[in-house]
UniProtKB/TrEMBL annotation:
TM spans (from-to): none
The protein's name in its UniProt record: CoA-binding protein
Alphabetized Pfam families for the sequence: CoA_binding_2
Provenance organism: Candidatus Methanocrinis natronophilus
CoA-binding domain ranges (all copies): 13-108
Length: 138
């Protein structure tokens, strides 16, 4: 099964990954996408911040990109901060560019997409905070 919820599997994903594309970044430090990304970056991950509404701006010292297609490196983790109804389009874009793990933050889960990615044999982390995993498992 490729739906990942076991802590050892989560630790393995985090230890093997170096690049995280955060989709749905906000410039507001009070928003989860901001403070979660801040912690993930502190753990040494190369983060790419994605939000077409803030494309070209700088957040957390990184230039914001408009889409996953603009990421210049291989995306290992797609970290999702989008409403569940927006996740299907995002998953399609992620398939196009390639990725290792599709990580849905709490409240972003779209179970139709999760099941489809699972059936395709892709790694999916549904509804678990990557920040908490970094803090507990690394």
């Amino acid at each position: 099964m490729t739906i990942i919820e076991d802590y050892e599997d989560l630790r393995d994903i985090l230890k093997k990954s170096r690049t995280v594309a955060v989709v749905g970044i906000s410039p507001d430090p009070r928003q989860p996408s901001y403070f979660v990304s801040e912690v993930v970056k502190r753990y040494g991950f190369k983060i790419y911040l994605i939000n077409p509404e803030h494309r070209g701006e700088e957040i957390l010292g990184e230039r914001v990109l408009g889409s996953l297609r603009e990421v210049p490196d291989k995306v290992e983790i797609v970290d999702v901060f989008r409403r569940p109804e927006a996740v299907a389009v995002l998953a399609e874009e992620a398939r196009e560019i390639g990725f290792d793990t599709f990580w849905l933050q709490p409240g972003t889960e779209n179970w139709d997409v999760i099941r489809a990615l699972d059936q395709e044999g892709r790694l999916v982390v549904p509804g678990i905070c990557i920040k908490t995993c970094c803090q507990l498992l690394l």
